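This section describes the prediction task in plain terms. A model, or a person checking by hand, is given the sequence of a single protein chain and must write out its three-dimensional structure as a string of tokens. No templates, partner chains or ligands are provided. The sample shown here is typical of the held-out split.
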Amino acid sequence: MYQHILIPTDGSPLSRKAIEHGIAIAKETGAKVTGITVSTPYYVFASDPDLLSQDVYEKSTTAFANKCLIEFKAIAAAAGVSCNTIHVQHSQPYQAILDAAKNERCDLIIMASHGRRGISAIVLGSETVKVLTHSTIPVLVYR
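The expected answer:
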């Protein structure tokens, strides 16, 4: 079965449910699990540098990422599953997820989808859809 599962998180309640589901699968299959959260680099964010200094932005994104990954670790610990966590800065979150899956030698990605349909799906896009489109390994989508 699966030996190493990558589970991205954005800190949302739906993401938490995907983490719980993914960790349950890992526990049943004996797979290793890695949690990842991706932050947008400052240079992508800062169209107007006066809005937020780079230092404040970096501290804020790091604190948020740590919060997401601490929650991930707590869910894994409660299930008795050991885990690794990764925080990456990348302008394309889907690519950071795919890169992490390759670098960590994962054989499954489990991630949440908000299930947008129609014009909102076309306009907003979805990191999940991009991962599905470009992944060379299986992707389980939790909705």
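For orientation: The two ends are 22 Å apart (CA to CA).
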